[in-house]
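Sample entry (264 residues):
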Amino acid sequence: MSDGASDLIEAGAQPQGGERRRGIDRVIMLLEALLRHRAPVRVGDLAKMIGAPRSTTYEIVNSLLEAEMLETVGSEGYVYFGRSMHLFGWAYSHHNAHYRRILETLDKMAAETGETVQLCGLRGHKYVVLDCRDSPGPFRISSDVGVEVPIPWTASGRLLVGHMSEAELKSFIPADDYKLPDGRAIAPQDFFRDVEQARLQGFSETSALADRFTWCMAAPIRDGHGAINRTLCFVLPVDTPEPRRNQLLDLLRERAKGLSLAGG
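Predicted structure, serialized as tokens:
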């Protein structure tokens, strides 16, 4: 790099700063595209996904390959997340004491009950499963970790947006997200009432929404300010007897309260 170019960067010249920002944005878009695709992708297809020139995408991919944030898969030019991404995730989950407690609780609850237990949260305007322990039984219910799902489809979603007013919910949740996978539609006003009920009672239950065979229950995990940014959930067969559901709900609420950093 010439001295003149160095002087421009040191002075914070806008063109370089803008280009650098666009480069960072494209790296984030590329990683998000891989996360949503959930499988190895050819670099040319990645370029189309993020709307970037192929040459730019190859340059980003090569840099991420060197940093082991991506790795090649097979012999046909596919790439996917690499070992460094695993180490980043490992560092977060093992050195965040609160998150480590949550994972230990998931393990314990799954072993105690034999049911599918999940940690859930929001990502943008969608609901996601952050971690999951599947039921070992013959009737297995599980959700893919990280897959974005419309908020109205879920028990957890009703808790996670409980701090919002009706007007805020109307602008926050896309209109199409009230339509269930089988074509049924949730009336927005019914959803708003569910959100208010979940807020007042401190838990939420739904049945046969995203999946006609499941009963879902969720309890809030509150942060140090009392806000709900995660939930603890059971996903059960829809025909689970009511006494069993009530027993599991009591356990769920007790464990979620124990993981909360503030009362509520």
